[in-house]
Design brief:
By secondary structure, the chain is an alpha+beta fold. It is 52% helix and 15% strand. It has three domains: 6-118, Butyryl-Coa Dehydrogenase, subunit A, domain 1; 120-223, Beta Barrel (Butyryl-CoA Dehydrogenase, subunit A, domain 2), CATH 2.40.110.10; 229-386, Butyryl-CoA Dehydrogenase, subunit A, domain 3. The strands form three sheets. A four-stranded mixed β-sheet has the order 1-4-5-8. The two termini are 35 Å apart. It binds flavin-adenine dinucleotide.
Length: 391
């Protein structure tokens, strides 16, 4: 890939080899059984891949969002569930990186960097999806603790994570400004994991409810100050959505690679179908879109990596790039995987070939960490801001 430093090119090659040897043989089975793949987690731990995006001071490799994107992309080329493990580790740890105290960082980040502990991010509720500030989960201060009541749903890594960053209102009357963020460990009294959802794609990843019934969270686990929660969530998502874009680029590349190889082998009318111009045009468009998505993603990561950690609002143009990357890459993944199924004809519709799984997996990238309608709003508002109209 043009412009990437040698260190990242070597990382990319190592992850490609790992994905082909350890993930590829299991991907179809993980999809079919929808069992969480602890063997993937072990493979990523052994290769230090949970460390990639985290700061060096806390056990990370300090390769930033660009490093995390490369790893997520290469894993997702083989199985989007494997890529999601790295993406969600970023999502669950970024709030601590951005807003945590030194003690909180030292306590939680090294364990997440090693992969000993998986992380999760609980923002969404049944009545609060795109309108994330409308959540009903409450946190009330009692002495040295906060007592949490309510529930989260659609949380990735529910039931397998050891650390959950959870958003709850400490001052419901204040709306978004009354939301706070807490680090909740899986052994917290009053906290339980509820129902796990059955899904169209990324079936090996868990998605479920977090239940809080008088859950007692020590005051020392409040992230930042009371009322910082919404800013923490937005600062996290502005950055973490690049990993979802990376997941999408990887899925698209995997589908393209498979469709290309198939088109060279499959013969109809006495010759390989790859010789028909109608299919060549499709393959050319698939490759062009995938490469454009990748370059936009890398540009967004490089731009975001220039920004320091912390809760300061990103420059409009940086969060716009990250929204554009997620929007374009996920729409690309949906288009390219659908076309890959078409290239394979009826065989593409069958579970013996991975492209139907990739098409199902691609769909989620248009939905989570902000739907593509919301990404378009982010892009449009930041464009308007450059004209002097408030975001
Ligand atoms: C598999 C999976 C994993 C997930 N993982 C996590 C996780 O780890 N943590 C977490 O907190 N959440 C997670 N989510 C939640 C995810 O981020 C939300 O589903 C998403 O933000 C959309 O919210 P919603 O589903 O409530 O849809 P809604 O907000 O109800 O949206 C419904 C439709 O309306 C559109 N819409 C809404 N508002 C607007 C608007 N202003 N303008 C135009 N269109 C609009 C949406 O784009 C969508 O098409 C996950 C979801 C899934 C499915």
């Amino acid at each position: 890939m043009t412009g990437l430093p040698a260190e990242l090119l070597a990382l990319r090659q190592a992850v490609r080899e790992l994905a082909e040897s350890r993930i590829a043989p299991r991907a179809a089975e993980v999809d079919r059984t929808a069992q969480f793949p602890w063997d993937y987690v072990e493979a990523l731990r052994q290769h230090d891949l949970f460390r990639v995006g985290l700061p060096e001071a806390y056990g990370g490799l300090g390769l930033g969002l660009l490093g995390a994107a490369l790893v997520t992309e290469e894993l997702s080329r083989i199985d989007a569930v494997a890529g999601l493990l790295v993406a969600v580790q970023e999502l669950g740890t970024l709030p601590i990186v951005l807003a945590g105290s030194e003690e909180q960082k030292k306590e939680f980040l090294p364990r997440c960097a090693s992969g000993e502990c998986l992380a999760a991010f609980g923002l969404t509720e049944p009545e609060a999806g795109s309108d994330a500030a409308a959540g009903r989960t409450r946190a009330v201060r009692r002495g040295d603790e906060y007592v949490l009541d309510g529930m989260k749903h659609f949380v990735t890594n529910a039931g397998v994570a050891g650390v959950y960053v959870v958003f709850a209102h400490t001052d419901p009357a204040a709306g978004a400004r009354g939301m706070s963020a807490f680090i909740v460990t899986s052994d917290t009294p009053g906290f339980a994991v509820g129902r796990l959802q059955h899904k169209m794609g990324i079936r090996g990843s868990t998605t479920g409810e977090l239940l809080f019934d008088g859950a007692r969270v020590p005051r020392s686990r409040l992230l930042g100050r009371e009322g910082d929660g919404f800013r923490i969530a937005m600062a996290t998502l502005d950055r973490s959505r690049t990993t979802i874009a990376a997941q999408a680029v990887g899925i698209a590349q995997g589908a393209l690679d498979y469709a290309l190889a198939y088109a060279r082998e499959r013969r109809q009318f006495g010759r390989p179908i790859a010789e028909f111009e109608g299919l060549q045009f499709m393959l050319a468009d698939m490759a062009t879109r995938t490469e454009a998505a990748r370059q936009l993603l890398y540009a967004a990561c490089a731009r975001l990596d220039e920004e320091g950690e912390g809760l300061a609002r990103l420059p409009a143009e940086a969060s716009r790039l990250s929204a554009m990357a997620k929007l374009f890459a996920s729409d690309t993944a949906m288009q390219v995987t659908t076309d890959a199924v078409q290239v394979l004809g009826g065989y593409g519709y069958m579970v013996e070939h991975p492209v139907e799984r990739m098409m199902r997996d691609a769909k989620i990238t248009q939905i989570y960490e902000g739907t593509n309608q919301i990404q378009r709003l982010v892009v449009a508002r930041s464009l308007l801001e450059t004209l002097g109209v408030a975001r």
